[in-house]
Amino acid sequence: MKQLVEGFAQQLRDAMDIGEKATVTFSGFKYNNVVIAGMGGSGIGGNLIQSYVADKLSVPVVVNKGYTVPAFVGRHTLFIASSFSGNTEETIAAVRAAMRSDASVCFVTSGGELLRIAKENSMPFITIPGESQQPRVCLGYTVVLMLYLLHHAELLDNTFKTELRQSIDLLEELSGSIRVQASALANAFHNKLPMLYVSDAMEPVALRFQQQINENAKQLSHVNVFPEMNYNEVEGWQQPENLFGQLAVLLIKTRYDHPRVHLRMDLTKKILEGKVQNVLEMEARGATFLEQTFHLIHMFDWVSVYLAELNNVDPNTIDNINYLRGELSKE
């Protein structure tokens, strides 16, 4: 797993190369909305795309994580299916529903049933390398290639390419310091329940972190966002007091947070410092949204790997997930 995490910057570079060489064509008519379908390590890329394009696309982007699709899906929907294996049952079901609704369906996958559907129906697709057999370590491929699909569909301009190149440069420049900071965070989270707080704009980054802690370190975690948590969860920090010693809080800041969100974080920190020993704070590096996003993702991936070592678990195994898949396949 360490080797796969270490190669993240190169993965972004390889993904750009795949995207530049991809030959995909779309119908050319105007799309009224975009739906991105995917689960787990493949699906979180959709959430990241949704945040990134929020101020760039003139049409809404919805992330679909389930067997069904929204009623608005139709002929003027660009429907992007993201599945590393191509055999994710929820995504396959959603694709078939989108096809029945006459949506324009395209794919990012390494193979499986989705690639068969794409080829059989002459639908646009971009394939990703499948050697790792680990969807969660292929986030660079899925995010970058979905951006290229949006670009080929004439919804996104070329700006993302420059930001991707800058992100790669940043990760390579900061590789050493990222690992040092990640190691310190892992030690702070060891034998604790990490409580991750972030702005609404960066919620997908925190969700990705939670997922990596879950899958790699075999450890529970919790995520909430500002400003919403100030209207409910902050009041819950009163009971049960006997659990507070088992918690570690991380406030994640970026330059893309609303100024009032930073004020809320600072005020909330004062409340939490009276209850929890570890109230940590970190700020993303980078000049653009993508740079800050990938900086955080790469650091948090390292945290999950170091935490796996501290927990004495194998980050490559997913026994509970495999059990569920096996039992579901019997039905």
UniProtKB/TrEMBL annotation:
Pfam families: bact-PGI_C (PF10432)
Domain SIS: 22-161
CDD domains reported in the protein's UniProt record: SIS_PGI_PMI_2
Keyword vocabulary terms for this entry: Isomerase
MF annotations from Gene Ontology: isomerase activity
Family per similarity comment: Belongs to the PGI/PMI family.
Protein name in UniProt: Bifunctional phosphoglucose/phosphomannose isomerase
Organism field: Pontibacter toksunensis
